[in-house]
Design a protein that fits this description.
Layout: H1 5-12, E1 19-26, H2 43-58, E2 62-68, E3 86-87, E4 96-98, E5 105-107, E6 112-113, H3 119-135, E7 140-145, H4 150-155, H5 170-173, H6 175-188, E8 193-197, H7 211-222, E9 229-233, E10 237-239, E11 242-243, H8 251-256, E12 260-264, H9 269-277, E13 283-285, H10 288-292, H11 296-302
Parallel strand pairs: 1-2, 2-7, 3-6, 7-8, 8-9, 9-12, 12-13
Antiparallel strand pairs: 4-5, 10-11
């Protein structure tokens, strides 16, 4: 359930015309895989989001809801009736997951591959979540297709070993993501839809043998649906929180995609400005720095020093610490 303290958090970071993308928000009761993460599949959740969205709009901000399904990045603890988490295949993540109690770490539950005939229901869950987001007042949605969650689990050949029309070729592996895009765009309008993609990343053991081809294919395929934006994660962000030197680039995807092109991953003020002025991107997305600096646009404008973020408090459930207690400039 979205929490009241999120009203302050998001409104602190709102400014006229500024785009905020909400935290990952579950599309169904089987989409969850982390403690204390919100959803948007029930009427009660829609009502709980409304004051949060209103807080952003009162400050003149633009607010998109990021909708996701964790897929195999889950545990039976999070699933209705402790059912098996679903994925593109039965390949299990070898790492540990935090249980729903927020304390214990255990093995990820082995997933089961979705049956071909079950996939339309998951597509429909995304469609309904998008409609709910608009009903809650959001200006649009961002489909979370990155970082090893369900949409990414279909695209990446290290996870997807299917033999039906959703596996094998690049075109088949991208079929489910594009069906989600089409359904969401049809439901709420393509001008309210973005998608986040991380072809180069290997988060949650979800990597691809040819990330450039995957990224370009998706960039080109998305043009058919005329969505508002594609939000790509930089190749240097291969694993969580670590930036690696690479000669790989998002430029081929930038050239292929006709809509607004957003980039994220390890950006500061100067290289963010450079990405815009050089035409590498239309917008640069900030996460950790914006968490730690509620007035980040003002600090960038003044070239003021930034608060340092505290990674230890990124995912704790405290309603204040590491969330709304980072100081503003005097």
């Amino acid at each position: 359930m979205p929490q009241p303290h999120a009203i302050l958090y998001y409104s602190q970071r709102s400014s006229p015309g500024g785009l905020l993308i909400a935290e990952a928000t579950g599309v169904s009761d089987s989409a969850q895989g982390y403690p204390n993460t919100p959803g948007i599949w029930t009427e009660e959740q829609v009502e709980a989001w409304k004051p949060i969205v209103n807080g952003v709009h009162k400050k003149g901000g633009v607010f998109f809801c990021q909708i996701w399904h964790t897929g195999r990045a889950s545990h039976v603890d999070y699933q209705p009736n402790r059912q098996t988490p679903v994925s593109s295949s039965d390949r299990k993540i070898s790492a540990k997951i935090m249980r729903a109690n927020g304390k214990d770490f255990v093995d990820f539950s082995p997933p089961r591959a979705l049956k071909t005939e079950e996939i339309p229901q998951i597509v429909n869950d995304f469609r309904l979540a998008a409609r709910n987001a608009i009903n809650a007042g959001f200006d649009g949605v961002e489909i979370h297709g990155a970082h090893g969650y369900l949409v990414d689990q279909f695209m990446k050949d290290s996870v997807n070993n299917r033999t039906d029309q959703y596996g094998g070729t690049l075109e088949n592996r991208c079929r489910f993501p594009l069906e989600v895009v089409e359904a969401v765009a049809d439901e709420i309008g393509a001008d309210r839809v973005g998608i986040r993609l991380s072809p180069f990343a290997g988060y949650l053991e979800s990597s691809d043998s040819n990330p450039e081809a995957l990224g370009v294919y998706m960039a080109e395929a998305l043009n058919k649906y005329s969505i508002l934006y594609a939000h790509f994660v930089e190749p240097r962000m291969v694993t969580v929180g670590e930036s690696v030197a690479t000669n790989k680039s998002l430029l081929p995807m930038r050239k292929a995609f006709k809509g607004a092109f957003l980039v994220a991953g390890g950006y500061g003020r100067d290289d963010g400005n450079e990405a815009i002025t050089s035409g590498k991107a239309d917008l640069v997305v900030y996460g950790r720095h914006f968490l730690a600096n509620p007035d980040l646009p003002r600090r960038f404008e003044l070239n003021a020093p930034l608060n340092k973020y505290d990674r230890d408090t990124f995912y704790i459930p405290d309603p204040v610490v590491g969330y709304t207690d980072y100081p503003f400039l005097e």
